[in-house]
Every structure is written in structure tokens, then in C-alpha cells.
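Hi! If you just cloned this repository, the fastest way to understand the data is to look at a raw example. We've pasted two of them here, unedited. The first protein comes first, obviously.
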Amino acid sequence: MRTAVVRTGTANLASVLAGLRRAGAEPYVTEDPGDVLREGRVILPGVGSFGAALAELRSRGLDRALAERFRAGRPLAGFCLGMQLFFEASEESPGVRGLALLPGTIRKYPDTVRTPRLGWGAVLPDPGSGCLEPGWAAFANSYRLVEPPPGLRTAWADYAGPFAAALERPGLLLCQFHPELSGAWGKALLSRWLEGAGAADGLTAEGPGARVSRPPAEPLSGTRSVRVIPCLDVDAGRVVKGTRFLDLKDAGDPAELAARYEGEGADEIVLLDITAGLEGRATRADTVRRVRAALGIPLTVGGGIGSVADAAVLFEAGADKVSVNSKAVRDPAILTELAERFGVQAVVIAVDAARRPDAARRPDAAGRLSGARPEGASPWEVTVDAGRTRTGLDPAAWARRAVEAGAGEVLLTGRDRDGTGLGYDLDLVSEVARAVPVPVVASGGAETPRQMYEGVAAGAAAVLAAGTFHFGRRTIHEVKAYLAERQVEVRP
């Protein structure tokens, strides 16, 4: 089933193509308006900037081809930014006119929630038939449609209030989420659309009498859902795990582990090439390709990224986000360059923090050491070069500066706890989470579900672990069950 995927210049195309192949399509990427007009099925994906994507489409005449196809009622889909482009305007790019195929303006999330929204949420369609069914979807967005136009079947989600997670009518499917990254549920949705399932009840009627979709009376699940993330530290194409970044042990093949963790309920995978920076190279793209081919959930990739070109290679290979550490400390402008090209939702600042040698330390109630802040200084400092180089930077202050430069998420690792099983450095997690308005991923030292719960209580939006999963001491299911028992929202 040949399917044309329109290049917008900002999409995570490898993830889209892999998701379509899993759903039974034969996808290809095109910049040719002729393909948009003649192909049986066409998808407009996208991440990044509303204005930049429209400029790319207009420069190639793709906007006119998409409009002609839309008005002819031929099968057409838009994912994430691709959905937003169908509307008249977005608060992201004031003064830029969208494709204006549907009425409405895309609005920014309020400052009362962490943005971008990175994670999973429940999706509830209006009653009726069609492609859309209830489930959980993967979101990565800072803007959304609050008031869907009449005449389309709407699926609702909730984050700082209800918004349109998806819209459909026969042949048309627009998703604010990423179906290609939404696991088995997203795969099934893509398959239904490819096979021609269409909305069939009265909401698809157009004109003055068209029914208007109303949001659910009760808030939907997922507004504060916490992600559970296995981390694959890769060296020479194999997953390894050590203690405080040393004494590495082999843990398996990255593609096989990633697929296993998705099946066990992982919400995302982080893949870090731990020797790339030391060897003066970027993460090996062939490893990323193999993992992406096996994976239907979001993938963050880091290691040795020193330029926008390095990041572009990884996005083309299948990354959905890139994690930058040492290069960003030495040249924070790279975060701005990455955000302008790929969007803030695709840029992660990795902060590896170690206690200063002269930091005062005291035992907590469990006998673990925690910091007593020396007057006027943080007890931690940022490290780079796989923990080998101390920078003197305050982790919270550096994370805040990195977010201002363009990072949309913080991957925070307590180097002193890494691989020890002592749990996250909770004071560090709390301090950084309070300092930034974006999601914080807690990393370094978690062994048990209780320790991961403590990370959430300290302010983390996601909890990351490695060895405890790799070597079978805990399962993702155990962690999620423990969190759910303590009223922490997780994807089922």
C-alpha cells in the first residue's frame, strides 16, 4: 500500500516511515506536488516550528497540492505539527497564515503546566464509528487546538484542560499526538486509516447545521502521567552498565532490549552512546536505525552530538529527541540552533551532576549521604566528558540557562549514585525540578520501585533506570503497579 509522506523539513521522518511499515504500508518521502495529487494515501507529518514548516511547503508548491487534495476529499492525514498546519493560524508564529483548510487557531498551553508536554495521555473519541478508538497516545507538543471546528468527529485529550487530540471524517485523519510512536494502539489506528475505515455518523455532516463536538464532562487521564524509561548505555554496539560510569558489564543487544521493554510497558527509550564524546564522534547511526526498526514508542538519543548536522543524522536514523551534554556546556548556542531547526520538544539537555569535593555531607534517616549546602554555593557541580571533567557549574542554574537557550527537557543524572542502587539524589532532583518549567527525567541510582516513587515525589516527570531492568531485578510492570498504588498516574 504505497503512501506518500510529505517532507516538511522538520519531521522525524524515520519514525513515521518505520511506524507506517509496521502498519502494513509501503511509505516513501516526497517533495513533489505531483505525488501529493496522484498517490492513494498522503501523510503530512511534522515537528518543530509552524512558520518554518509552512515556508518549506510553500517554497515547493506543496501547500496548493495539499489544498486541492483536501477539497477533493481524498485520503489525507496530518500528525502533530502536521495537524496544526491545516488550520488558519498558530500562536507559535504570529502573523503566519496556515493552510487554512479548517477554521481555528492553535493555542499555547498555559504557563501553569510544564511545556512542552512530553508523555502519554488518554484519548477519548466522540461516539460513532471511524478510525479513532479509545486508548493512550504519545504527545510531544507545546500548542494545541482547544475549539475543534464543527462537522468532524473529535477525539479528546486533557492537559491544562480539554483539547482536540484528533479529528476525522471519511478519508481525513488529523492527530495532535504521534500515532507512529503510540505503540500497539497507534499501529492499529494507522492500519485502520490505511485500510480506509472512515467516520460514519452525523458529526461528519457539514454546513450550518453540522453538529459541534463537546469535550467530556470529566477530566481525562494522562494530565500528569509519569513516564517509566529504560536507558540503554551503548558501547561498540552493545548495551553496557557500570557504576559511576565505570566497570562496564555487557547487558545485551540494544534493538532486542528496546523491543522487549516496549512489550513490557516502557513509555520511552533513552539510548546513550557513552564513548562517542570521548572518541570525538557522534552516536553511531546504524545502532539508532536498528533500534528504531524494532520500536514503536519515543526514542531519545545522545552521545557526542557536536552540531546540528550530527543531530540531523540521528533524526534521519530514527531519533525523536536528541540529548546534548558536553557540547552544550562549552557552547550553549547549539541548543538554540537545535530548537530552531527541530523544535524545543526534540532537544534534551543532559545534566550529569556530581557532589563537589568540599561539599558538606550528612546522613539522612536511612543512613544515606545528602548535601548540606555550603553557604552561597551548590553542593553539586555539572560534569562533562562522561563524568571525567568537573565544570564548577551549579546544576540548577545551568539547567535553567539551557532551557532558556532552547532545551525542552532535562535528563538529570546524579553521577555519585549511578549504578549504586542507592536511589536518586532526591535533593538534586528537587532543586533542578523547581528551577525549570520543562519536564525533568530523574536518573542515576534507582534500583527499586520505591526509589522511583521517591523521584516522582521530588518533582521528576519521568523516572529512568538501567541495570535493575537489564539484569532482571525489577520489571517495568512492577514499577508502574507500585506507582499506581500510590496514586501516581501512569499509562496502563
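Ok, and the second one:
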Amino acid sequence: MFKEFPEIIRIPVGTWIDRFMEWVMATFGEFFDIIGSWILQFMLNLEKFFLWIPWPVLILAAGIGGWRLIGKWWAGVVIGCLLFFIGTLGLWKLAMMTLALVTGAVIISLAIGIPVGIAMAGSNLLDSILKPFLDGMQTMPSFVYLIPALMLFGLGKVPALFATIIYAVPPVIRLTNVGIREVPYNLVEAAHAFGASYWQTLFKVQLPLARPTIMVGINQTTMMALAMVVIASMIGAKGLGLEVLLAINRIEIGRGFEAGLCIVILAIVIDRLTYAMSSPKSS
């Protein structure tokens, strides 16, 4: 009798979501078209910028940045050599397109995530409300994000960026919130006692002390954005992710390995640079 769950007891969540999305498309379709055109122009300009930079300049800048941030000259040499290796595989242009997508996603994620994290740190109620949504955004299968992105923006760079942002923004929100909450309360009280306003306390006390934690959040957001490049390629994002997808479709092991290796190299370089920015040495 109780071996199977009765079909009569069913909550049609999927149907409700479909109807809600239909209402959103009918009501705000033009608004999303405008937003999509703005984001597309932003992404095209960002991509043109990365493709415009001469490859020796970018490799040299990354190497010097690694040396200055990490504090070891050989770290800069290794970073430069890794990026040079991407060029030797003939995938420099695709790597720059991928880097543009990741950079755009991180910029918008930080513009959204840091203010939201600050607001959560200042309100226990908002913290309690948003945490379940952040849990859902981090645990929901990433393929699910492609469906609303396709419905709202169609195929191309814009839905890829949109899906990447949803997947990548939770870490910076969480760690901004945690970083500010971990600032000793007596320091905040002392700032108020000396007549500091809320904004002065935030920018001169809380954010500087929370900087290492926030930088870890930026690091994690960047890594998660990079992890989405292959999935984003399924809805029109070009770059290394598309190369991996084509290799899978054609069962070309070598081609897929080369593109995957380039993604790993970008991840290592970005991870080391952003992690170094959170260390006291870079302060």
C-alpha cells in the first residue's frame, strides 16, 4: 500500500515556475532586451580589449604582477611561462575570449556581491532571508541556470554571462558578510566613540580589516566563473569551453586535452594572483 508515493499528492512546482517565467517574458521582455544589449556591448568591448593587448605585453604584465604580489621572482617567471605555453598550443585567442567572459562575470558579480554582503552583515534579518537562496544558487546543478538564461536572452554571450554570474556570485556575498562580521566589535564601538559615521566606519575600519576574507571570496568567485566556461559554451559562449565541447562531440581526445589544459593554466594563474592579493605581503 505504501510502497509508492500517491500521485494525487503532488505539488506542481514546475508548472508554477513555467507560468511565472511566461509572465516575466510577457511583462518584462523589452526590459531584458535592453539589458541584454547593454551587457552584449560591455562583453564585446571587453573581448576586443583582451584581443587588442599584444601577447608579449600581457605575459610580461602577468609575470611582473606575480613577482610583485607573491614576492618571489621565480613565481613571475613561472606565470609568464605558463601563459606563453598557451600560445604555443595555438589557443591564445580562445584563451583571451575565455578570460574576457570570466572577467566580465567577476566584475558584475563583485558589483552585486560586495554590496549585498555588506547589507547582510548589517542586518540579521536579511542574512537569514538570503542564506537559503545562496545555498540554492550554490547547490543547484549548473545546467539548470542555462534554461532561464536562454529564455530571457536567447543564445550567445549574454545568457552565458548571466548563468555564470548566478553560479559564481554566492562566495563573494558569503565571505564579504563573514569578513565584516568577524571584525572585533570593540573596534567598531571605538570608531563610533570618536565620532565616525556609519560609512566612515565601514570604509575605514570594517572593510580594511575584512579585506583578506573578501579577497578569498573574490578568488572563489573567479574560480567558479572559470569552472562555468565549458557549460556556458553550450549556449553560445565562445572560447576554450567551446573547444572542449567540440572535442567531446567529435571524440578528439588531443584537442579536448589541449583546451582543458589551457583552462587549468588560466585557473592556476588567476588563483595564485588573487590569493596573493589577500596576503599581508600585498597590503
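That's it. A detail worth noticing about the second one: Residues 13-52 form the longest helix (40 residues).
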